Amino acid sequence: MVSAFNMLRTPRIFFGAGKVSMIPVLLKPAGDHVLVLTGSRSWQSNAGIKALLGTLRGEGFSLSHEVVCGEPSPQMVDDIVGRYQNSKVCAVVSAGGGSTLDAGKAVSAMLPLGEPVHDYLEGVGTKNHPGAKKFFVAVPTTSGTGSEATSNAVISEKGSGGYKKSLRHDNLVPDVAVVDPELTAGCPPAITASCGLDAFTQLLESYVSLRATPMTDLLAMEGMVNCVGSLSRAVLDGSDSDARLRMSYAALLSGITLANGGLGLVHGFASAIGARYDIPHGVVCGTLMGVVNRFTVQRLEQEAPASTAFSKYAALGRMLTTAHPSLQRGPDDDRRLALQVPLYLEKLIDELRIGRLGDYGVRREDAVGLADATDQKSNPVHFSRDELAEMLRERI
Q1: Which of 60, 93, 105, 111 could cross-link 153 (Cys pair, CB 3.0–4.6 Å)?
Q2: Residue 314, exposed/middle/buried by CB under 10 A (0-12, 13-18, 19+)?
Q3: CA dist 193 to 50, 82, 200, 301, 370, Å?
Q4: Are 156 and 274 in contact (CB under 8 A)?
Q5: Which segments within the chain are labelled E, that is strand?
Q6: Distances (CA, A) of 249 to 38, 53, 54, 96, 187
């Protein structure tokens, strides 16, 4: 029997090598004045994005261009909206990593309102967004956040009173997502690694989430199979087109599964840490996914070995031992298979040379305060403050 479930709508998706060339045709119905947001690296060194801008101008589009540096803050979004509030912008195209996509999503959503974005952020604002937006096209140049398939934009305010909160409405999902793996070819190894681990984390967390559905289970496992088979290859050889394609696919699936299945403790930590420290989101996820999943599997083994979540860890472990025969072999039982998951993740994190939280200024004495600020979201296990702080200290 298949359990009942709901699925949020996805963008109109165009996936595959060379799909970026379709963007001019996709924009025509929206109008000819386009605001383009790019990341600083996408603008400076991504030949595919430079070619796209040239093509748009050559086909008669009037372009305005903004460069997004780092995670979008309320001030950044408000400043861009203010510059184009009274313009004839009819569409927004965002080409870059997850931060650039979130910035474009927020700008698209706030242009019709012309109000401070802070007022509409979950947990800090007092207003609900009505869902109106400019036509929005998301074009990822990294394989990580899956923002091209979600209906929320993460906005960050750094500092002691900082936060990472979402601007959210079902209508804010991009109208079009153009996922062209060729645009990720120039992504440096360190960014490829951290973004890829963010996607892997999203897939795994949505797979074992308390909100998981039959559909998210299928998509999450498909995404993880592609991560396991291609992430290391994409990091070691950025020109490996098959690895890049598979990671772009995995990241896209991770956006769909997180939107529908929810996330877990790693992303709870990431929100708390990212609000206080200037640390890439993918690094937080990558450095913590091993220890968090180890604690989770051990607790499930002790207290809920018959649970759905423990069975899912075992299924993932079976996939891992099939894909990597070098992993410990032994009896094909759920306990042994489930324990392979954190073992594999911790080995992968070391292999990809993911940094520690201490490298970015997090101190051991900060662990308890960060634990207090951490939302455990839809994690299948609930941990105490002391256990959360212990996990953090392992990666400081």
Answers
A1: 105
A2: buried
A3: 24, 35, 10, 30, 25
A4: yes
A5: 12-15, 33-39, 62-68, 91-96, 135-140, 152-157, 163-168, 176-179
A6: 21, 24, 27, 16, 16
Query: Each residue of 315-338: pLDDT tens digit?
Result: 999 999 887 766 666 667 888 999
Strands 62-68 and 91-96 turn out to be: unpaired
Pairing outcome for strands 176-179 and 91-96 = unpaired
pTM of the full structure: 0.95
Q: Which two tokens stand for residue 271?
A: 């929100």
Between the alpha carbon of residue 312 and those of residues 210, 218, 265, the distances in Å are 12, 11, 17
Phi, psi angles (nearest 5°) of residue 231: -60, -50
Q: CA 234 to CA 245: how far, in whole Å? A: 9
The conformational region for residue 134 under phi > 0 = left, psi -120 to 50 = alpha, else beta, is: beta
pLDDT tens-digit readout, 25-53 = 999 999 999 999 999 876 678 899 999 99
Q: Is residue 234 within 8 Å of 243, Cβ to Cβ?
A: yes
Report the distance separating Cα 383 and Cα 265, nearest Å: 9
Q: Are 112 and 132 in contact (CB under 8 A)?
A: yes
Total number of residues shown for the chain: 396
